[in-house]
Design brief:
The protein is an alpha+beta fold. The protein is built from 11 helices and 23 strands. The two termini are 49 Å apart. The protein has 3 domains: 88 residues, SH3 type barrels (Roll), CATH 2.30.30; 177 residues, no CATH class; 171 residues, Cathepsin B, Chain A, CATH 3.90.70.10. An 8-stranded antiparallel beta sheet has the order 8-9-10-11-15-14-13-12. Strands 16, 17, 18, 19, 20, 21, 22 and 23 form an 8-stranded antiparallel beta sheet that branches. A 4-stranded antiparallel beta sheet has the order 2-5-6-7, with no helix packed on it. α1 packs antiparallel against α4.
């Protein structure tokens, strides 16, 4: 591929200042086209740079010429384009990815109120880098009013939740707005619009109306920036076992992928992430059973006090809801590397919603066992009942902890995880799904035997 061929006319204009928008209504940053067309018509004089020396400006591509788009460069910020010429070598150049807001004409004026009414989305669309390299940069962009850490530590948070009450968008007050890092290779912004676990707090929630508002505005955005394209589609993914979750996918400028997940009477959630990052992850081969077993064994550690335990199990905070069963199961599957949340599991388990501050809802034992079984259908996992007492229980706990497999433990009115033991003083280590401070707890063996109502594992 010949690089570095320099021409000024008629392909390139003289080097003149780039023509901006005279009204200032269209932002200069962000709104980079997410599609990669085969051919592109230059809509306005466009600075062109040498592919071999990206800082060296060749000139400006003149309005009206057509180029072939070869690939993305510079982390998705530039295109490598080719201008083919009959009987002569093609000209190759780097150009900035076009600003989708500039090429929509008056369409952007019409869609701007929709964007302005969703401040978080606007910040992402207009950011020079919507997915910055460092965590501090991301949190400063996403949560300018501050945040709290309900899972993980301040230095290494697994989930970050926005502070304040200024997160209203499109006339909707979400339950939470969070940045999720449980799967560090696939971080996401999660807007929980409504879940059945929180339904009693919002008795006037109009599910159909809210769903239609979100869908209508996302469709308006897609139709403005990619009319007639393929930036909107439905996706149905089998996450684990028989759990199949449907989503409506909307691809927006600036490398933004919005997944609208909703299940009637169950949940309504927006997930926002990098489309390019997800595409790269999907190209990787899934972890084999042998690799998973090696990973789990590598997570077994010993504290200074001598407790053998499984390190790094993600926290899923059930909050005030009676979601201990599904939160504990979600933690196990997340630890295994699967993208499963407690809301999908709550649907599978028939978990009852919280009806008041005194009635937190929950999951019946039979439904919990059924959900464990169904979650392993057509999967590399199997539910194994290791319920036992006395020394037999100790042996079972130690056998599975030593393999890095958390134990789902049922006690009166609750489920949590057994994640460790002490080989000499007969204490166990357990973890509750209640956020920071509940990741690592120690209990004497005699207390365990008083509370123990059963133990299960989801064994790879």
């Amino acid at each position: 591929m010949p690089f570095g061929i320099r021409f000024t006319y008629p392909v390139f204009l003289a080097l003149v200042p780039f023509l901006g928008n005279s009204t200032g209504a269209i932002p200069d940053n962000g709104y980079r086209l997410h599609t990669l067309p085969e051919r592109w018509e230059i809509r306005e004089p466009t600075p062109a740079f040498d592919p071999d020396e990206p800082d060296a400006k060749l000139g400006e591509l003149r309005k009206g010429i057509e180029v072939n788009v070869r690939e993305r460069r510079a982390g998705g910020k530039q295109w490598l384009v080719e201008y083919p010429r009959r009987n002569r070598d093609s000209i190759f150049a780097l150009i900035d990815v076009p600003n989708a807001a500039r090429i929509t004409g008056h369409g952007f004026d019409e869609i701007r109120p929709v964007i302005d009414d969703f401040p978080l989305l606007r910040r992402l669309l207009e950011a020079e880098r919507p997915w910055p390299e460092t965590l501090d940069e991301r949190l400063a962009l996403y949560f300018p009013d501050g945040y709290r850490v309900p899972a993980g530590t301040r230095e290494d948070p697994q989930r970050v939740v926005a502070r304040g009450n200024r997160w209203r968008f499109w006339g909707i007050d979400p339950i939470t707005v969070a940045y999720d890092r449980v799967h560090n290779e696939r971080p996401r912004l999660i807007v929980e619009v409504w879940t059945k676990g929180e339904a009693f707090r919002r008795p006037d929630f109009r599910e159909n109306s809210v769903r239609n508002t979100i869908r209508r505005n996302l469709e308006h955005l897609v139709n403005t920036f990619d009319p007639g394209g393929d930036s909107q589609f439905r996706e149905r993914v089998q996450t684990v076992g028989v759990i199949r979750e449907g989503s409506e996918i909307f691809l927006l400028p600036n490398d933004i992928r919005v997944s609208f997940r909703h299940e009637r009477d169950e949940y309504m959630i927006l997930e926002i992430e990098s489309a390019d990052n997800l595409a790269a992850l999907e190209e990787r081969a899934p972890r084999s059973r042998e690799e998973l077993r090696e990973f789990l064994e590598s997570r077994v550690a010993t504290t200074d006090s001598g407790h053998v335990h499984i390190d790094g199990i993600p926290m899923v905070n059930q909050g005030d809801k009676g979601y201990c069963v599904v939160a504990s199961m979600a933690r196990v599957f997340n630890f295994y590397g699967l993208h499963v949340d407690m809301h999908g599991l709550a649907r599978l388990a028939g978990t009852l919603p919280q009806r008041s501050f005194d009635d937190a809802g929950g999951t019946f034992r039979a439904d919990a066992l059924n959900a464990m079984q169904r979650s392993t259908i057509n999967s590399p996992f199997r539910r194994r009942d290791i319920s036992s007492t006395g020394r037999s229980a100790q042996r079972n706990i130690r056998r599975y902890v030593d393999r890095g497999i958390p134990v789902l433990w049922v006690i009166p009115g609750h489920m949590n995880l057994i994640i460790g033991y002490h080989p000499e003083n007969d204490t166990i280590v357990y973890s509750d799904s209640w956020g920071p401070g509940h990741e690592f707890k120690v209990m004497p063996w005699e207390y365990f035997e008083r509370l123990n109502l059963g133990m299960w594992v989801l064994e790879p």
